[in-house]
Design a protein that fits this description.
Structural class: alpha+beta
Largest sheet: 7 strands, mixed
Shape: elongated
Distance between the termini: 195 Å
Helix content: 10-25%
Length: 396
């Protein structure tokens, strides 16, 4: 009987205390935080005048052994160095949680104890934290070049006040722009100051007609006669070009207005060379967005390279033979002229010898030198008179 009376007294006393200024007020009972960010539970508490607060504590609701339990944050290792009490033992009971994680979602309760009474949050007096992740959105996600694109960064419960954007890891300046082919890529956003924890990327697909077209010729320049030629058409497009058409015009009428269809496919093969294949060729590439074209001029054909080399070598050989024969002829002519000069000099020496003999004979047999020739080192002169030679003998 005494126990029953005691319990009733306690209940009446408790309700009386609760009704005379004992309370906890939460500024935002349903906060939402982005994963990796910080969140603060702003709250205040009141109590009966004259009381002194001895202890404060925050707890989190857990299901333990199929029962709902309140566990103080100080007893949870996952909150160590992440939860900070911002309040005091007067009337402020605010709490901050840093580097919020997904498992931080749930209900949080506050209690305080005075000298005479301990107060705790009731079931409806709690804070429910929702943890969300940043979500990057691109509107629309698939566009054509020239269309407007808008970037939006938010969460399931609120829009962050300041965000930054990245495309493939590089900063993006404008959140609204006209899409160009180079804008295709993966976009992500992050809260300003928390760039190391960005959102999951979202792709922007910019579609455009073929561009940057090129035509590769298997035999650049003049084409060798007797060989085939491949013209390969390439283009950058999104989606990829799925239709290639070739048109051609002869050299005499190489204008786009006079072009005729000559083939289809990315590669155009021209049969072994003929002069009629020279001219202007146009490749037209097309996809679902549009089309574009590129031209190439194919010059005339020449003889086969091997034959040209043989002709070149034969020509060089003929020139070498002619130069050799000319050199031999020049040497032969020079030697012949030299020999003639030598013979002439030798002949002059013979006349000198003869003259000397005649001088001797004249000395021995005077009166017989009238018709002898006189020679010097270069010429032989016929002398008609013997008196000159007689004088010479007299001098001797």
């Amino acid at each position: 009987m005494e126990k029953t009376v005691t319990v009733l007294v306690l209940l009446i006393t408790t309700e009386g205390i609760g009704g005379s200024g004992w309370s906890v007020t939460f500024e935002n009972p349903d906060p939402c935080a982005v994963k990796g960010s910080s969140v603060a539970f702003r709250c205040s508490y009141s109590y009966r005048e004259g009381e002194t607060v001895r202890e404060t504590a925050w707890s989190k609701g857990h299901i333990k052994q199929h029962n709902w339990k309140r566990v103080e944050l100080s007893d949870l290792a996952s909150y160590e160095n992440r939860s900070v009490y911002l309040g005091d033992r007067q009337h402020n009971c605010s709490l901050a949680i840093h580097d919020v994680q997904g498992n931080d979602s749930g209900y949080y309760y506050f209690r305080f104890d005075t000298d005479t009474y301990g107060w705790r949050s009731r079931a409806g007096e709690s804070v429910h934290l929702s943890v969300t992740e940043l979500s990057a959105r691109v509107h629309p996600e698939r566009v054509r070049a020239g269309d407007d694109v808008t970037l939006e960064c938010g969460t399931s419960c609120y829009r962050p006040p300041g965000t930054v954007w990245f495309k493939d890891g590089r900063p993006v300046a404008n959140l609204t722009f006209q899409a160009q082919p180079g804008d295709s890529g993966n976009y992500s956003c992050a809260i300003e100051g928390q760039e190391s924890d960005p959102s999951d990327p979202v792709a922007l697909d910019v579609q455009y007609a073929p561009l940057n077209m090129s035509i590769e010729v298997s035999q650049p320049g003049d084409v060798a006669e007797g060989s085939s030629v491949n013209l390969t058409c390439s283009a950058v497009a999104n989606p990829a070009a799925d239709n290639y058409t070739w048109y051609g015009a002869s050299v005499s009428s190489s204008s786009s207005s006079a072009m005729l269809w000559v083939g289809s496919g990315q590669v155009l093969t021209l049969p072994p060379g003929k002069a009629s294949h020279a001219g202007l060729y146009l490749c037209q590439a097309r996809n679902s967005v549009g089309e574009n074209s590129r031209e190439v001029l194919l010059t005339g054909y020449h003889t086969d390279t091997a034959v040209s080399r043989v002709i070149l070598f034969v020509g060089i050989g003929v020139k070498c033979v002619i130069l050799l024969l000319l050199s031999v002829f020049i040497i032969w002519a020079w030697k012949k002229m030299r020999n003639s000069a030598v013979d002439e000099m030798e002949q002059c020496h013979d006349y000198e010898n003869t003259m000397n003999m005649k001088n001797i004979n004249n000395h021995l047999f005077p009166g017989h030198l009238n018709n002898l020739a006189s020679c010097d080192h270069n010429t032989c002169v016929s002398k008609g008179e013997s008196n000159e030679y007689s004088s010479m003998i007299a001098v001797q």
